[in-house]
Amino acid sequence: MDVKCAICLLCLLHLNLGVDEVIVTSSGRRWPWDIAQTLTIRGRKQCTRECQIRGSACLAVNYKTRSLLCEILGSIPNNLTELTTDVTYDYIAMSSQTSVFSAAVCDSECSSTAGHCLQLSSGINYCRKKNPKCPTNYRFSAALNFCYLAVTTPADFLTAKAHCESLHSRLAVLPTMGYVDYIKAGMIVKIII
């Protein structure tokens, strides 16, 4: 008997709003050798940018999410199987990155596009645009910084995931009841749970 869970299909689309995403090479793993420098209180993007501006002196970083710790690595493993398991870290190789994070993105274009300039803890200025344009039929959630598409057709997980991927989006996986309550409260009027 094929059982379908009555879930609300919620496809998320992260817009490129002057912010590119860091590509994590291996989650829950790290390279514990040849740590050139350890930086504290850094976001993942700041950590990646710190590595990028060092050029060949930094080939990868270990990033510890909970404590915002950034380890600049002077060498990388020959094979990802050489990484050690540590669920508190993400290993981020610079060779995996598709974006170069710019040093100063606040300029006259930032204010002319209804953005506002923020200064990051590293001292770098960053322009966050206020009014993103979502694709047709998508809505924007400022709280999540995502465009989303609510589909009320019940589906099992794999079908829902495949549907979102066919739209170049990803399926929202709600990890706690708090997220479910947030969705129920404001983002979607008709939800099937």
How would you summarize this macromolecular structure in one to three sentences?
With 193 residues, this protein is of the alpha+beta class.
Offer a few descriptive terms.
11 strands; 3 domains; 4-stranded antiparallel beta sheet; disordered C terminus; 4 helices; Hepatocyte Growth Factor; 193 residues; alpha+beta; 5-stranded antiparallel beta sheet
Structure description:
- This protein is of the alpha+beta class.
- The protein contains four helices and eleven strands.
- The protein has a five-stranded antiparallel beta sheet, covered by helices on one side.
- A hairpin with a 4-residue loop joins strand 9 and strand 10.
Total domain units: 3
Q: What name goes with the CATH superfamily of the largest domain? A: Hepatocyte Growth Factor
CATH class annotation of the largest domain:
Alpha Beta
Overall helicity: 10-25%
Radius of gyration: 20 Å
Biggest sheet overview: 5 strands, antiparallel
Would you tell me the structural class of the helices and strands? alpha+beta
Tally of contiguous helical segments: 4
Report mean pLDDT, rounded to a whole number: 74
Widest sheet: strand ordering: 2-6-4-5-3
Show the helix and strand layout.
Elements lengths: L8 E5 L12 E5 L4 E5 L4 H10 L6 E5 L4 E5 L10 E10 L14 H5 L2 E5 L5 E5 L9 E3 L4 E6 L5 H10 L3 E2 L5 H11 L6
Antiparallel strand pairs: 1-10, 1-11, 2-6, 3-5, 4-5, 4-6, 7-8, 9-10
